[in-house]
Inverse folding.
């Protein structure tokens, strides 16, 4: 093959169709079609549908009646929406605060080559293999105020009204979310850490930097884009927590853990108000988009830039 | 038998059910029973009801080979979704099984089910053998739109006799006695009342009784009829206040807000002696019998109707719960199919079906069914349920089923907040007044 070495000045960013880079057999844009078709059918079409539904009145069984801005007025004037937004934000913020440091530490640990690392890695990943519903049911049973772990073992500090107290219930949701997703983000960080060239650490060692100094001066800065990727997944993902909360607390006690997705489900499928439920869905989508774009901005304009220049 | 299956697993279940509802079993082949006079009948699957329903249809079909009933059975949540879709598409069955009340009202308002008032007038024997109270949820705007069927399930105050004996106290005969018992049980480290508060409708049963005992049936009657500010009735405010007083006095088990009724943990608290009393549907008897070891067999389970409130206007004989299950006839069915359906209605709750229901621990909604209960091993409880149902002048329907789904969801939401004390009685009434008639 006669591919030009990347160090040579190459002002053309994308290879022209038919070039050797594309495999030499014409355009490959068709390869994107299956994903594009799937995304259009299952991503864009429902999105447009939900957007249109938010301007209608529909009780699932009856006819869809146009209702103008009624649903939006109902939803935006409802204090429950603000409350749900606040709950969603709390879950998002706290689960990010808990997950990110722990995931980085575990990821860095797993990326090294210590003894028992493989065994521990398998143990860490178990929560990721379980379904959210199964995890929630298990935790609900463990935290049951009368038949749970605390009551059975007789340990005072475990005998709290974990899911019946508004503050504790929110804490439990954050804990269970973190428990499930830390393994996933550790995996991302492990991959990130492995890509940091060892020559950097060797140079640091020669300069006399200790382990902690190496972590803060090399590992963390080099993980910048990994952190942004992982944070995007955490933050946008936390908008959609539904099954976990629904099984664990059903939005309760009262409405203490009623996040946007739970609120949406209750309006749509319990109260048969598809219009307002669709409006909440649109708000959810907008929140997700804004957050994802905002986080991308954090990483600067050219995320594709190499961080390894000069190595 | 559980009151209903709660959708607890995931949104996927709902989506799955919705997909199943528009699935491949083309409605064309199930909406008619094949022959001209055939009728289709959709109802719930699952024990113990399924075999009894199947048996009733089989016996009818054997006796009427020319105009058959075709039975289709669905799981509870799937049935609700399938029925909604079918009505929307005009593909509903001839005979529609339901819960009466708010759900039936929405069909009536859309002109989707037939008025059966005249038929019942012409066929007095069919009507007269059923409990009069069972016609409540079948009656919309003074007209009967459904045939009451199957069994009666009142809400009952269960208590653990052993615990009462230990403390040398007797079951409460009034609200005052309930409030007196609360500190006594709490001092003995036994929860006065078990409650699966996360399920929300369990909390609602307390309000249903207190509203009735304090202000009589008209309090909720006004709400049901959509009168403005009906939730602000002084009796309603009093009932809501009393409920919160009981919560503040630690009347309910520690952590009740996170206990679900569908896990039966609330019932376990009662039969394990961790709680002294529990307000629950009569179906809980079967659950405690099955799961409580020898608790029920040793006669430790006590049961009574909810006591009166001193100075209250309501009759302490009144009860709430499910007065029956309901069969309606679709308006869009052919006249022949409608005739078949009516013939089928007349055949329902024959001696065999009554015996079948009694075997499942249910009391059929037939006057004089008590004579048949004696042979059952659970005769005492069944006779008690029969007594409650036949003595009740008012058999109120569960509120969440009496109201429209939209109002019911707001109600349950506010009940949850009332029980966590994040809102007070006045705020509750204001929130609910806003959705009256919706």
């Amino acid at each position: 093959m006669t591919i030009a070495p990347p160090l040579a000045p190459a002002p053309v960013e994308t290879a022209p169709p038919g070039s050797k880079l594309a495999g030499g057999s014409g355009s490959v844009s068709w390869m994107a079609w299956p994903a594009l078709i799937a995304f259009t059918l299952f991503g864009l079409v429902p999105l447009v549908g939900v957007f249109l539904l938010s301007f209608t009145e529909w009780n699932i069984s009856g006819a869809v009646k146009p209702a103008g801005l009624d649903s939006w007025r109902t939803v935006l004037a409802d204090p429950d929406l603000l409350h749900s937004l606040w709950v969603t934000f709390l879950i998002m913020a706290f689960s990010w605060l808990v997950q990110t440091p722990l995931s980085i530490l575990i990821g860095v640990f797993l990326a090294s080559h210590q003894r028992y690392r493989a065994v521990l890695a398998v143990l860490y990943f178990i929560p990721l293999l379980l379904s959210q519903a199964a995890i929630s049911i298990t935790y609900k049973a463990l935290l049951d105020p009368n038949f749970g772990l605390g009551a059975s073992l007789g340990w005072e500090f475990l005998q709290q009204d974990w899911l019946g107290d508004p503050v504790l219930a929110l804490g439990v949701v954050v804990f269970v979310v973190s428990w499930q997703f830390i393994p996933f983000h550790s995996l991302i960080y492990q991959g990130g850490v492995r890509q940091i060239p060892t020559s950097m650490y060797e140079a640091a060692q020669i300069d006399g930097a200790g382990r902690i100094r190496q972590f803060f001066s090399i590992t963390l800065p080099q993980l910048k884009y990994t952190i942004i990727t992982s944070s995007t997944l955490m933050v946008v993902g936390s908008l959609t927590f539904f099954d976990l909360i629904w099984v664990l607390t059903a939005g309760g006690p009262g409405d203490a853990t009623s996040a946007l997705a739970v609120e949406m489900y209750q309006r749509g499928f319990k109260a048969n108000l598809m219009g307002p439920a669709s409006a909440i869905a649109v708000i959810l989508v907008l929140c997700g988009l804004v957050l994802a774009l905002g986080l991308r901005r954090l990483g600067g304009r050219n995320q594709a830039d190499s961080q390894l220049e000069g190595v | 038998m559980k009151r209903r299956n709660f959708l607890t697993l995931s949104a996927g279940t709902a989506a799955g059910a919705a997909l199943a509802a528009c699935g491949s079993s083309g409605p064309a082949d199930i909406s008619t029973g094949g022959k001209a006079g055939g009728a289709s009948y959709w109802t719930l699957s699952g024990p113990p009801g399924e075999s009894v329903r199947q048996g009733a249809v089989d016996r009818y079909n054997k006796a009427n080979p020319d105009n058959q009933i075709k039975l289709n059975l669905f799981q509870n949540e799937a049935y609700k979704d399938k029925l909604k879709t079918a009505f929307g598409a005009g593909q509903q069955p001839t005979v529609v099984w339901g819960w009466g009340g708010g759900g039936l009202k929405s069909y009536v308002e859309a002109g989707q089910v037939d008025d059966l008032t005249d038929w019942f007038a012409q066929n007095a024997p069919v009507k007269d053998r059923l409990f009069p109270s069972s016609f409540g949820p079948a009656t919309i705007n003074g007209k009967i739109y459904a045939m009451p069927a199957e069994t009666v399930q009142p809400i009952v105050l269960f208590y653990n006799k052993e615990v009462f004996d230990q403390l040398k106290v007797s079951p409460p005969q009034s609200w005052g006695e309930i409030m007196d018992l609360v500190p006594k049980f709490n001092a003995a480290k036994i929860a006065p009342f078990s409650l699966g508060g996360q399920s929300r409708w369990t909390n609602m049963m307390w309000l249903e009784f207190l509203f009735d005992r304090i202000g009589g049936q008209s309090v909720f009657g006004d709400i049901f009829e959509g009168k403005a500010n009906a939730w602000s009735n002084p009796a309603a405010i009093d009932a809501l206040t009393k409920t919160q007083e009981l919560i503040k006095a630690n009347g309910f088990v520690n952590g009740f807000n996170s206990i679900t009724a569908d896990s039966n943990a609330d019932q376990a608290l009662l039969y394990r002696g961790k709680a002294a009393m529990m307000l629950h549907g009569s179906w809980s008897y079967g659950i405690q019998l099955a799961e409580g070891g020898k608790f029920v067999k040793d006669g430790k389970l006590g049961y009574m109707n909810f006591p009166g409130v001193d100075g209250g206007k309501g009759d302490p004989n009144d009860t709430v719960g499910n007065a029956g299950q309901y069969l309606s006839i679709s308006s869009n069915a052919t006249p022949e199919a409608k005739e078949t359906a009516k013939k089928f209605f007349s055949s329902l709750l024959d001696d065999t079906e009554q015996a079948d229901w009694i075997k499942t621990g249910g009391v059929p909604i037939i006057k004089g069914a008590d004579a048949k209960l004696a042979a059952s091993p659970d005769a005492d409880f069944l006779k008690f349920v029969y007594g409650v149902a036949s003595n009740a002048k008012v058999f109120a329907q569960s509120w969440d089923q009496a109201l429209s789904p939209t109002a019911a969801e707001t109600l349950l939401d506010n009940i949850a907040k009332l029980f966590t004390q994040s809102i007070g009685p006045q705020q509750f009434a204001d929130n609910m007044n806003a959705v009256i008639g919706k």
